[in-house]
Amino acid sequence: MGTRFKVNGRSVDVNADEAMPLLWVIRDRLGLTGTKFGCGIAQCGACTVHMNGAAVRSCVVPLAAAAGANVKTIEALSPDRSHPVQKAWESCAVPQCGYCQSGMVMAVAALLESNPDPSREEVDASITNICRCGTYQRIRDAIQVAVKNARHG
Ligand code: FES
Ligand code: FES
């Protein structure tokens, strides 16, 4: 028997070294490739997923730590890209190359879940993901649009 947990609502039982980073389990064992590898040392945020509702950098979460957890990846943030953050990202045309963006979206979605109307300082303090294309201004704008969308439905 391997390590059991839920991914996107589905129960999985993964036979792998318990020290394997959750990122590799998600990508290589479960085939969910929307979550990206950037640095592998918890610096860039490209690998951000939700674990029990909180944003985590899956490159530094060992498989053992996911036992019994509920993990959500970008593939299941919404069934049809209708999450307020996804809609805001689309309307503000945030991505450039796109590589960092699933991690950004997951980080912002978790922030708005815990703090539906963050101040600019709170956004800057909690969204520390790195974008090599420098889309930070559009990210800040899109967060404001997402806050408004979520408020007005
Ligand atoms: S790949 Fe995980 S933080 Fe960069
Ligand atoms: S859009 Fe290219 S790294 Fe962020």
UniProtKB/TrEMBL annotation:
Gene3D superfamilies: 3.10.20.30, [2Fe-2S]-binding domain. Keywords: 2Fe-2S, Iron, Iron-sulfur, Metal-binding, Oxidoreductase. CDD domains: fer2. This is (2Fe-2S)-binding protein. Signal peptide: none annotated. It holds the Pfam family Fer2_2. Residues 1-77 form the 2Fe-2S ferredoxin-type domain.
